[in-house]
C-alpha cells in the first residue's frame, strides 16, 4: 500500500475520484458530438463520449488527487467497446501519474481467481512461448489495485494477494459496503463470539494482509468500509490496524467528512475517501451548465451541424474540468478540516 | 427459468459445459497456429487459440447439452481482446441454440448493479437519442443468464432480477460455493435462529425470485450450490422450493453424480450440473493426445512450418470435439443413472 500512501502524502489529499460515467452525467453536446462521430452504434458513441469526459476529468484533477477509481460496471454496460475504454482510461490515468484503483469487485474459486488476478499482473503464460513476444509482459488492465468480494473465503482472495505482492499492487476487500441493504448480511451477528459477518471478514482481511505489510504499517490488503456507517467505521479501524480503508459513500450517498474522519488512524493516515458524482458531475451545479442542457438544442442535432456541436462539446468539457477541479479541492479541504477537528 | 428447463427437457440432459479455456487445456498445435497467425501479441494469440478451441467444443456438444457456461475470468485474463472473445463465444453458442449462462459473479450497490445488468439487457439509453441508431437495441453480451454475488444484499441483486424479468433471462445467486474455503463465511452459524450465512442467502434468493415464477414452478432467481456439499444440498433444496440450482464442482473438483442427485427435485428437475475441465479437457485422456503434446514438436515451431502447424491444429481440434462429445454423453448418462437410483 506504500505507493498509494506516498501519493496521498505528495498531494496532501486522502481522496479518490470515481470515474463512473453515465449518460445523465455527460453534457448534451459531448454526447451529440460523439454520436456525430459514431453514427453506426450506440455503444461506440457512448464509449467515445465517456472517453472525452474521462480525459477532461483526469486532466483537471491530476495535480489535486492521488488516485482515480473507475467503476467497471459503467464500462461493461457498453460491452467490449466499453471494456476497451476502461483499460484505456486506466492507462491514461496511470500515464498522468495517478494511482489507479479498479473497482471491479471480482471474486471466484481459487483457480478462477488466479485468472482474474491478471487484472494485477498480465496475461497467462504459455511455457513454450518463452520467446518471440518480446521480454516485457503485456499488462492489458493498467490497474494499481482492484476491489474484491470475500464471499468465497480465502481461496478466492489469496491468488490476488500473491500477484499483488509480486507486482507491487494492492487489493481492497469488501467488508462493510455503503448501500442500504448491506446490513442484510454484513451486520448479521454470528453465533460464535459477538462478531458480525462484516467483522468476521474484517478479521480475515487483516489476516490475508499479514506478510505484506509495507514501510508505512499497512498491508497490501485494504478494506472497503462505507462512509454511511461512521460508528462501525471507528470499531472496524481498531479491528484492522494494518488494513488501509477505501471509503465510498461520501457526498451523493450521504456520508460527511465528519463521518469519514473516524476511518483514519491517529496520524490522519489509513484511509482514502471516494467521491464520484460529487466530482465528475459538479459541472451540473455550475450556473453555466444550463447552456449545455439537452433542452437548449434542437435535439438530436444533424450531422450538418457537426462543427458547432464539436465546439459546444469542447466548451462543455472545459466546464466539466473546471468544476471537477473545484469540487476536488473543496472535498480535500472538507476532509482536512474534519481531520483537524476530530 | 422456463427457457433453461425446456432446453434441458429437449436434450434430456441437466448438464452444462463450462467454457473455461486456459493455455494448459489447449493442444500445443492449436496454440502454435494461433501464435503463427498473431505474432505481434501474446494476448491476441491466446484469444485466437481460445476462439478455435471454444468453437470445436461448442460444435461438438450442441446436440448433447442444453447450455454452456463461459467463465469470464479466463477471458478477462487476456484483457479487452479476451472480453471481445467472451462476447463472441456467447453469441456463437446462442446462435447454435444453446442457453448461455455467463459465469461473471457480478454484484455492486444498486445504481452500479443496474449498469452491470446491461449483461442481460443492452447498452444504457440516452433519452434524446431515440432515433438514428435503428430500432433494435444492441445486446453486446449475448447471455441468457449470469451468476451474481449476494454480499451486498437486495439492492445489489434486484436490479438484475428486474432486467431479467423484462428480457426473459435469469440470474443465479452464489449461495454455497464448491471451493474449500467457502465455509469460512457460508457455513458460519448466525445468532438469530439456526441458519448459517449460506442458508440466510438461500432464504433471500427464494424471496428475490418471488413474483418471477415460471410455468415449471421455478423463479428467475437460481442458486449456485456446489456438488462438493451433498448433505447441505438436500437441505438447501427443501429451503428453496422455487429456486433452480446451478451445481458446480462435479468431476475435477470431486463431486459425483450421487452427490448431485440430492440437488434435484422429486421429478428429476430443479438443477443443472456443470462440468468444465471434465468435458473441454477430455481430449487429454485420449490415447491420441500424446501426438499433440508440446514435447512432440520442436517448440515453438517457426513461421516457415505454418502450414504443417495449421494441419496439426485442425486434427487436434477434431480430437478436442470428439472427446468433448463423448465426455458430455458419459456425464449425461452418469447423472441419469444416479437420478434413477436415488
UniProtKB/TrEMBL annotation, chains A, B:
Domain Orotidine 5'-phosphate decarboxylase: start-end pairs: 14-292
Xref: PROSITE patterns: OMPDECASE
Signal peptide interval: none
Gene3D superfamilies, A to Z: Aldolase class I (3.20.20.70)
Active-site residues (renumbered): 105 (proton donor)
Pathway of action: Pyrimidine metabolism; UMP biosynthesis via de novo pathway; UMP from orotate: step 2/2
Key word Membrane present: no
NCBIfam families documented for this protein: pyrF_sub2 (TIGR02127)
Origin superkingdom: Bacteria
Stored Pfam families: OMPdecase
This protein's UniProt keywords: Decarboxylase, Lyase, Pyrimidine biosynthesis
The protein's name: Orotidine 5'-phosphate decarboxylase
This enzyme's EC code(s): 4.1.1.23
Reactions it catalyzes: orotidine 5'-phosphate + H(+) = UMP + CO2
Gene Ontology molecular function: orotidine-5'-phosphate decarboxylase activity
Amino acid at each position: 500500500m506504500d505507493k498509494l500512501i506516498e501519493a496521498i502524502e505528495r498531494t496532501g489529499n486522502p481522496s479518490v475520484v470515481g470515474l463512473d460515467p453515465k449518460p445523465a452525467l455527460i453534457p448534451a453536446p459531448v454526447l451529440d458530438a460523439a454520436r456525430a462521430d459514431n453514427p453506426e452504434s450506440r455503444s461506440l458513441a457512448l464509449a467515445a463520449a465517456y472517453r472525452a469526459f474521462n480525459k477532461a476529468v483526469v486532466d483537471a484533477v491530476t495535480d489535486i488527487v492521488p488516485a482515480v477509481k473507475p467503476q467497471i460496471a459503467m464500462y461493461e454496460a457498453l460491452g467490449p467497446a466499453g471494456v476497451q475504454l476502461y483499460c484505456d482510461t486506466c492507462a491514461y490515468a496511470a500515464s498522468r501519474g495517478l494511482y489507479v484503483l479498479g473497482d471491479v469487485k471480482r471474486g471466484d474459486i481459487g483457480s478462477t481467481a488466479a485468472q482474474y488476478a491478471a487484472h494485477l499482473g498480465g496475461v497467462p503464460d504459455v511455457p513454450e512461448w518463452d520467446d518471440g513476444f518480446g521480454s516485457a509482459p503485456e499488462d492489458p488492465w493498467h490497474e494499481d489495485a482492484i476491489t474484491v468480494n470475500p464471499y468465497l473465503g480465502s481461496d478466492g482472495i489469496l491468488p490476488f494477494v500473491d500477484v499483488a505482492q509480486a507486482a507491487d499492487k494492492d487489493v481492497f476487500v469488501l467488508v462493510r459496503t455503503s448501500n442500504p441493504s448491506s446490513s442484510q448480511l454484513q451486520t448479521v451477528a454470528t453465533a460464535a463470539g459477538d462478531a458480525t459477518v462484516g467483522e468476521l471478514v474484517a478479521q480475515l482481511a487483516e489476516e490475508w494482509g499479514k506478510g505484506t505489510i509495507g514501510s508505512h504499517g499497512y498491508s497490501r490488503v485494504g478494506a472497503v468500509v462505507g462512509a454511511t456507517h461512521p460508528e462501525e467505521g471507528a470499531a472496524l479501524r481498531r479491528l484492522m490496524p494494518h488494513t488501509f480503508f477505501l471509503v465510498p459513500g461520501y457526498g451523493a450517498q450521504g456520508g460527511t467528512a465528519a463521518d469519514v474522519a473516524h476511518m483514519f488512524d491517529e496520524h490522519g493516515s489509513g484511509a482514502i475517501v471516494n467521491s464520484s458524482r460529487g466530482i465528475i458531475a459538479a459541472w451540473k451545479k455550475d450556473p453555466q451548465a444550463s447552456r449545455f442542457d439537452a433542452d437548449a438544442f434542437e435535439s438530436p442535432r444533424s450531422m450538418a451541424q457537426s462543427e458547432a456541436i464539436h465546439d459546444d462539446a469542447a466548451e462543455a468539457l472545459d466546464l466539466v474540468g473546471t468544476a471537477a477541479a473545484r469540487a476536488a479541492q473543496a472535498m480535500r479541504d472538507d476532509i482536512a478540516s474534519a481531520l483537524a477537528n476530530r
